[in-house]
Design brief:
mainly alpha; two-stranded antiparallel ribbon; globular
Length: 408
């Protein structure tokens, strides 16, 4: 609701009485709305349109998750219901996703005749190391942590908070930690929910250990240090944007990117090793199962939001949707070392569609206030922009100040 002081309320009442007694005053100009975007949004929280917006966002996010998995996996094993949601067989004619065999085949056949993406196995390894590992390590340290930290040090606290990814749910530190897990999984040729676990004998780590065991130990230690430094930051990050622990996390991410971009890349590209099994394990053991898990959890999230739409006054349904959102974030964040290929903007553009940050709160407020938008389909048609959809729009609609919202 609008916030009026006592004097403003009295003035409004007096003006209203005067208007009623003046037949010549026909000015119907609506009053200027001086509320912030956040206030406009909160005034509508958890009404019918709000929940329909959440359902539309969950539906579009599900489609994106299915597309990402199917693009890597290929058509084989994709359920008919999933296929129907992404356009049927025509989806696999999308340029550069590898046809019905999926994008994974480009990695597994790197260097073979006819491979239009990776001319050599070394090209594929470089893509994994640079477009994958280095990019996400740099993004976590310099952008996800560094940008809010820079604003906070400059005294620009409002800008600092808005720069913090996942601050509605206070999920930031978990997200950033899972980004480092995505590097560990890719380097060690495995799937895991933390940095510990077995290392595949057909992994980049195992190949580097064969050539230079000291370097392999340093790379693994750098990954572990980045993870542990992020975990050591005080939660919630949005309330603790500066300090020695934050500085240590940024430094650790920078150190990790440096050792991968320098010494590791140089040895990996110039070793004359056969990476056939390494690339197969990377695709079949790391990437595709991670995206399959993302798809599975996105279905749970979609169904949970639909259940909330059917019972909008049931807090347990809202709580289930919030839990499903957090669960779906895990495989997504643990896939962010694979933001080349179908997720990239030059192929399917799924990363910005799914995870753009920051959001446009002004545009979200405009969408929620649009009286022409009533149904879920109406909202699906209205949320084409990357900054009004995806994980973080759904996060805003489900969470407030780190807590699950409360139903009406």
């Amino acid at each position: 609701m609008k916030r009026f002081s006592t004097l403003l309320l009295m003035a409004a009442l007096i003006t209203g009485f005067a208007a009623c007694g003046d037949d010549d005053n026909d000015d119907q100009t609506p009053p200027e709305d001086n509320r912030t975007a956040t206030e406009k949004i909160e005034d509508l929280s958890m009404n019918t349109e709000w929940i329909n917006y959440a359902a539309a966002t969950a539906s579009e996010l599900l489609d994106d998750c299915i597309m990402l998995w199917a693009a890597w996996n290929g058509k084989d094993g994709v359920p008919a219901e999933d296929l129907a949601r992404i356009g049927g067989d025509a989806f696999f004619t999308t340029a550069r996703i590898g046809g019905a065999d999926g994008y994974a085949r480009f990695l597994k056949t790197a260097g073979e005749s006819g491979n239009t993406v990776f001319q050599s196995q070394e090209d594929a390894i470089e893509t994994i190391l640079i477009d994958g590992f280095v990019n996400i390590s740099t993004e976590v340290g310099a952008a996800k942590i560094g940008e809010p930290n820079g604003f906070a040090k400059a005294g620009q606290m409002e800008n600092a908070v808005y720069a913090v990814e996942s601050w509605y749910s206070w999920n930031s530190i978990t997200d950033y930690s899972d980004n480092i897990v995505s590097i560990k999984n890719g380097y060690c040729g495995r799937r895991g929910t933390n940095i510990s676990g077995a290392i595949s004998p057909n992994s980049i780590s195992a190949r580097i250990k064969y050539i230079n065991p000291e370097l392999d130990a340093e790379v693994n230690a750098a990954i572990d240090n980045a993870y542990n430094s992020i975990q050591s930051m005080t939660a919630p990050f949005r309330n603790n944007l500066t300090g020695t622990r934050v500085d240590a996390a940024m430094d650790a991410c920078a150190d990790l990117a440096e050792i991968i971009d320098g010494r590791l890349l140089n040895i990996a590209k110039n070793s004359s090793l056969d990476y056939t099994e390494v690339l197969r394990v990377y695709a079949d053991t790391v990437v595709i199962p991670t995206y399959r898990d993302l798809r599975d959890k996105a279905w749970v999230l979609y169904n949970a939001v639909e259940a909330l739409r059917q019972s909008p006054g049931d807090q347990s349904k809202l709580n289930a949707a919030c839990n499903a959102w957090r669960a779906t974030r895990i495989p997504w964040e643990q896939s962010e070392a694979v933001l080349f290929g179908p997720a990239s903007e030059d192929i399917l553009g799924l990363d910005p569609s799914m995870d753009s940050w920051p959001l446009s709160q002004e545009e979200i407020a405009t969408i929620l206030q649009d009286s022409n938008l009533k149904t879920v389909d109406d909202f699906i048609d209205a949320i084409g922009g990357e900054d009004v959809r995806g994980f973080h729009t759904l996060e805003l609609l489900l969470f407030k100040d780190g807590q699950n919202r409360t139903v009406r």
